[in-house]
Design goal:
Elements: H1 2-97, H2 110-118, H3 126-141, H4 146-248, H5 260-277, H6 283-289, H7 305-311, H8 332-336, H9 340-367
Helix pairs in contact: 1-4, 1-5, 4-5, 4-9
Length: 368
């Protein structure tokens, strides 16, 4: 019954070990998949970061080119305004420099003139004043006809109006460009701030991913250690079974690559054969009734027949290549005294039985 319990416990342990190994393999595969997913996410984040940087550089270049073009247009407008202003100033100088009064011819009668001067001056007529102004403008422009004078003044007025309009338009464009530049600057600052925040967030995420990878690797190492320990335990169990079988059948040791279940079956068959040799023991009933009864390893009844006879010190004829010689015929006292060789061989068998019981005790302790 003890060997049935050993077999049952070994089967349970093997099932547990197999299930735990399968579970560990599944967890290792899952961790590898998680590591691959995290690595893909990291690569995608790096690609997105590089693409965002490229876009920001392109936008900065576009903004700089727009600002350069606007500044160039503003400078050209200022230059045009200054040129037109200088032309206007030249025209005004020419007009006002040529606008001097013409010398009047002296009157024939000086006395009459003196008398007229002594008279109080009367204001000139409005038409006469306009005519005098027109003559001054005509002399200033150097034109010969009235239409030409009017054409020149109209063209000057149109140029002045056009210059004023260009000035107003250039000022409006300048203000608009300044507002656009301020908006672009604020947008650029926002992009830079977002890039810095994104870089910080990605660096934190990268650190978390690296920590997860480290933890997963540590778990993998621990799982490998557990698997090694369990495989070592399986090896110890198999070694104990082989030593048990070898102690039971020294003449027929188990093979090195033989399965543990096969060894257990062989041990069971051998024990059934031993139990069947006892006439008073019914094997099936004992197996059914005493399924959970603990077995004392030190009990001598579980030993084979020759070993029990040695332990109880009852002389039993032993089979071997060199049997002991039978005692010589004589009295009863002489028949009870064994020979020296016989006693030596029986002592050796007792020692072997004791050592085998100790080995059995050690293997049972390991399986528990």
């Amino acid at each position: 019954m003890k060997y049935m319990e050993i077999r049952k416990s070994l089967k349970d342990d093997s099932a547990k070990f197999e299930s735990s190994i399968e579970k560990l393999n599944k967890e290792i595969n899952q961790q590898k998949n998680n590591i691959n997913k995290l690595q893909k996410i990291l690569n995608e984040a790096i690609k997105m970061k590089t693409s965002a940087r490229k876009k920001l550089h392109q936008e900065e270049k576009i903004i700089a080119s727009y600002a350069y073009q606007r500044e160039k247009e503003v400078m050209e407008g200022k230059k045009l305004i200054n040129d037109n202003k200088q032309e206007l100033e030249k025209l005004e100088k020419r007009i006002y420099q040529g606008g001097k009064l013409l010398a009047r011819p002296e009157p024939e009668n000086v006395e009459e003139g003196v008398q007229e001067e002594e008279k109080p001056e009367t204001p000139p007529h409005q038409c006469k004043a306009l005519a005098q102004d027109f003559e001054i403008l005509n002399a200033a422009t150097g034109s010969t006809s009235i239409e030409e004078v009017l054409h020149r003044f109209r063209s000057q007025k149109e140029t002045n109006d056009r210059l004023m309009m260009l000035r107003v338009q250039s000022e409006n464009d300048k203000r608009r460009l300044e507002r656009q530049k301020a908006a672009f600057d604020s947008q650029l600052e926002a992009f830079r701030y977002a890039e810095v925040k994104d870089a910080e967030r990605k660096s934190c995420k990268l650190e978390e991913i690296q920590e997860q990878i480290k933890s997963e690797r540590e778990k993998e190492k621990t799982f490998k250690k557990l698997m090694d320990k369990k495989s070592d335990g399986m090896k110890v169990v198999i070694c104990g079974l082989r030593s048990l079988f070898f102690n039971m059948k020294p003449a027929k040791p188990p093979k090195e690559d033989e399965d543990a279940l096969i060894i257990i079956e062989n041990i069971k068959q051998y024990l059934e054969e031993i139990l069947q040799n006892h006439k008073n023991v019914n094997v099936p009933k004992v197996m059914e009734k005493q399924e959970n009864v603990p077995i004392d390893v030190d009990d001598d009844k579980w030993l084979p027949t020759p070993y029990t006879s040695l332990v109880t010190r009852t002389p039993i004829p032993q089979q071997g290549p060199s049997p002991a010689p039978p005692p010589p015929g004589g009295s009863e006292d002489e028949e009870d005294v064994p020979s020296r060789c016989y006693l030596k061989r029986q002592a050796q068998l007792v020692v072997d039985a004791k050592t085998r019981r100790k080995n059995l005790r050690v293997t049972l302790g390991k399986t528990k």
